[in-house]
Design a protein that fits this description.
With 419 residues, this protein is of the alpha/beta class. 20% of the residues lie in helices and 33% in strands. The longest helix has 20 residues, at 303-322.
């Protein structure tokens, strides 16, 4: 058993930012685990630009963005163990990890930062009829093959789902000479960023079929085609609207799932709306001394926001590791109001708010000329107007830290959206 101040699980953008922030906050004994052989998480395969506009005020590719933080980790001499799988995390912050280099080891940490990221939802979760032929892949897997391995998954492609990875892969496949026949989306709106719809679909004349889904996959050994049908308000296929696309590849971009198996093992409470941990304004979970950040907490649109959030978690973990006593429990519960889903954080301790509090959420539908309002015990304390809100884009509201001094005895904060 090795005693250590902070263990960070995950070497993607969240873990890297948390490690840098914790070190800069004065934590000397910390250790970062990454199960892949290299740091960076998903970023090394994201060779398109668009990263870093907020953090670095310049446009970078994914590998460039990751390298900025990898270089910083090395410069700060932060210990890293790649090729390491964390097997277990307990409530009393004991971490069990295994690797070919170091074998099986246990660490007793004063604080833990969960930064495991997320995984893609696969065909098994969709229950699409048909055989199980070659040619059905998640968009992220196809992205790794094309951008890092140099393999083409197919030449005639249909994409199911309009998540950002799927939209970006639509453009990428066109760059490589493939024909993308359509992007099919179950909902009446895209689940990706508007800029990706424009730059990746509209600019390449790829049709986006809203309120449609794939109802059948044809082919036994290899995909030969898919049947697409319109869906009604209950998202059920409408008979007579079927059309077949002859293709050899179906890419799935149908959602991301936070990797919270270790969180569950530690007894961390999970939120139903986000599938991530319930956290307070310091990003501490329901288990004292365990913090969460990045896509393991809730799925983000921009890596820049992951970085900012994770740096906050790193600073909070360093402060917790220095303190002899635990933090006071939060008393202000944060609730989803009308038109709102998955507000993070889910709790706030008004007595210990030391910096401005950012509330992040997704609207439940498309709202035009909308207002997002924040109420504490039914008293409106903030509001912001938006031209349009869509579920595919995260909304961020920032409340000044001084606000909470007036509501130390309050019980509930609610965020709601109205047109």
């Amino acid at each position: 058993m090795t005693d250590i101040d902070i263990v960070i699980i995950g070497g993607g953008p969240a873990g890297l930012a948390a490690a840098v922030a914790a070190r800069e906050a004065g934590c000397d004994r910390l250790l970062l685990f990454e199960r892949d052989e290299v740091l960076g998480g998903i970023l090394p395969q994201c060779i398109h630009t668009g990263f870093g506009l907020h953090v670095f005020q310049e446009e970078l590719t994914g590998p460039e963005y990751a390298q900025r933080f990898i270089d910083r980790v090395h410069a700060l001499e932060i210990p890293v163990q790649c090729g390491t799988t964390v097997l277990d995390v307990t409530r009393d912050r004991v971490v069990t990890a295994v690797s070919p280099m170091c074998g099986l080891r246990q660490f007793r940490a004063k604080a833990i930062v969960l930064a495991m990221g997320c995984r893609e939802r696969t065909r098994g979760a969709l229950m699409i009829p048909g055989w199980r032929p070659a040619g059905v892949y998640t968009a992220g897997l196809a992205q790794r093959w094309v951008n890092r391995e140099g393999w083409m998954p197919g030449r005639r492609v249909v994409i199911l789902g309009s998540g950002d990875i799927g939209l970006i892969m639509a453009r990428r496949m066109m760059f490589e000479g493939a024909k993308v026949l359509a992007c099919v989306e179950l909902m009446p709106y895209s689940s990706g960023l508007t800029r990706n719809v424009v730059q990746c679909l509209d600019d390449y004349d790829i049709p986006l079929m809203l309120s449609h889904t794939v109802t059948d996959i044809h082919g036994r050994e290899r995909v030969e085609g898919v049947t697409v049908a319109q869906v009604d308000a209950q998202r059920m296929p409408v008979p007579g609207t079927e059309q077949r696309f002859d293709c050899d590849t179906l890419l799935l971009s149908v959602g991301l799932i936070p990797e919270n198996e270790l969180s569950k093992a530690a007894g961390v409470e999970l939120a139903e709306a986000t599938a991530g941990p319930v956290v307070d304004e310091s990003l501490q979970t329901s288990v004292s001394g365990i913090f969460a950040c990045g896509n393991v907490l809730h799925v983000h649109d921009l890596v820049d926001e992951v970085t900012r959030e994770s740096a906050q978690a790193g600073r909070a973990a360093a402060a917790f590791a220095r303190s002899a006593a635990g933090l006071p429990p939060p008393a202000l519960r944060v609730r989803d109001g009308a038109g709102v889903r998955g507000v993070v954080p889910q709790a706030i301790c008004a007595e210990r708010v030391a910096e401005d509090v950012s509330l992040m959420f997704r609207p439940t539908a498309v709202f035009k000329d909308a207002t997002a309002a924040v109420k504490i015990d039914r008293v409106e304390v903030a509001r912001q107007r938006f031209r349009i809100l869509t579920p595919g884009e995260m909304v961020k509201l920032t409340l000044p830290k001084g606000l909470f001094a007036r509501f130390k005895g309050a019980c509930e904060l609610t965020v709601e959206v109205t047109e």
